From TrEMBL:
SUBUNIT field: Homotetramer.
Annotated GO MF terms: ADP-dependent NAD(P)H-hydrate dehydratase activity; ATP binding; kinase activity; metal ion binding; NAD(P)HX epimerase activity
Gene field: nnrE
Top-rank taxon: Archaea
Gene Ontology BP annotations: metabolite repair; nicotinamide nucleotide metabolic process
EC number: 4.2.1.136, 5.1.99.6
Protein name: Bifunctional NAD(P)H-hydrate repair enzyme
Residue ranges of every copy of the YjeF C-terminal domain listed in the record: 213-478
Residue span, YjeF N-terminal domain: 28-211
N-terminal signal peptide: none
Amino acid sequence: MKCSIMRPDLSTCAEEFTETGIVTHERMRVIDANARALGVSGLQLMESAGRALADAVLEYTPKNVLVVCGRGNNGGDGMAAARYLQHGVDTTVCYLDHGDRSPSCSLQLKALLGCRVRLSPFISSDDLRSLAPLFGKADVIVDALLGTGTAGVPREPLATCIAMANASQARIVAADIPTSGMRADRICAFHRPKVEGSTAADIGIPIEAEICTGPGEITLLPARQRTRHKGDGGEVLIIGGGPYQGAPYLAGLGALRAGADIVRVASPVFEPVPDLIYERLFGDRIGEEHTELLIALAEHADVVVCGNGLGKESHGAVLAVAPYCKKVVFDADALRLPIPRAAQETVYTPHAGEFARIAGKFPLPGDATDACGRARAARAAAKNLRATILLKGPVDVITDGSRTRFNRTGDPAMSVGGTGDVLAGVTGALLCHLPAFEAACIAAYVTGRAGERVAEMRGEGMLASDLVNHIPEELFVRHA
């Protein structure tokens, strides 16, 4: 996540745009990764979680505590809690000693070797049955067996561990989320609840890890299957060109570099780009005489990107084609009234002037650096339009009317013409596989990061086409 000297002041509205309530495993993974990018390590978060878990246990004033731990980070949370319980509480850690542990869990286990904590490893169900007295005398059992990333019914020997805990008279405190099949008298959730009935504990995650885009967003990309065939990566149709011939081709290249397998450009203007499929539209500009062909192409495409280099005289054709598109990214000259809408999902990617055209009753603040004011206006407009808006600016705002993110990546050199076309194409490719809001968040983040890379090399001499080759580095190459 970019740490710029000129950071947007979000202090006055951070709470306003912070989500509350139940958080999914996928969203929590994003937040954790963004927190690490902001300088808070996974071990720091685990330490805070362990302390919060220990405090929850101590509310029962126990004499004997049994912490049952798996091999993942949830087990590490339990082991960290045990260190905070070593003074004044008879504490035993019963941990699965079979298979690989997560690195953080291994470090927590190593730290326990120097603590006043009894360690009882188990490999089999028989091992657990030999530890039955520990379950019988415990006042509190801490459930740190399996975390949010697991699914299905626990297998042996964990199934035996769950049964023994359930049969005990002890109170059971679950670390973050109860292990499937285990009862819980209290659920100590870290940061935000994952299931109903949880008590959330603040573990020090920066608020910007929630409300700003970061590398965590990229974890939402679906894995590419080794058995994939041509077309599985998505087919994108670009509708544009006429007055401005380069724009649709920049969008098309952005879509290809963001993972689309097939990209067609339907335009009156031909550019010799061999990676793109050209669909010829006769004449000087796109008109209603082209709608029959465009509808046929749109119905075949997974996503349509429309408006790049189109000119204001083609809006009738845009309105005619839009209802036949499953998903659309409307950009540039398509952003006019009446506002077009896709059949399923719609993303609008306006700059300030285009936003004023389509959302006049939700005016932007006069100060372009007022990220909070811009976000309020964009959120209201997105809710009214029932769509996702990616409002471009010094700080991009992405909102679906309910959720809002701020994107701080990018460089002033990206003010050069054509960078928005690349962004629209990247958004279109991601929309083939992701919901509109998530696609727009990732597209804004990675395009801005690509711009930062180019600016380091070329400064104010950046070309929009320079961005294209750096998109895959940010989107698909995992950086250490």
